[in-house]
Amino acid sequence: MSSIEYEIVEHIGVLSENSKGWRREVNLISWNGRAPKYDIRDWSPGNEKMGKGITLTEEEFKKIAELAK
Q1: Which H or E run contains 20?
Q2: pTM of the complete model beyond 0.85
Q3: What residues does the Transcriptional coactivator p15 (PC4) C-terminal domain cover (predicted)?
Q4: What is the pLDDT of residues 3-23, one digit of tens each?
């Protein structure tokens, strides 16, 4: 199985944190050297492990912000 490379380009914020220290974060992430996308997922302390999440284009991210108003 091939590994997934990622770089957290910008940490935007934390949505929540559970009792084990995992935090649901919003970040701008470059996956496998591609252009960065907005990403919402759970991260272990120190961002060493990640859970399942959702990745959004800038247009999709803006649309969610509009819908939330």
Answers
A1: none
A2: yes
A3: 20-66
A4: 889 999 999 999 999 999 999
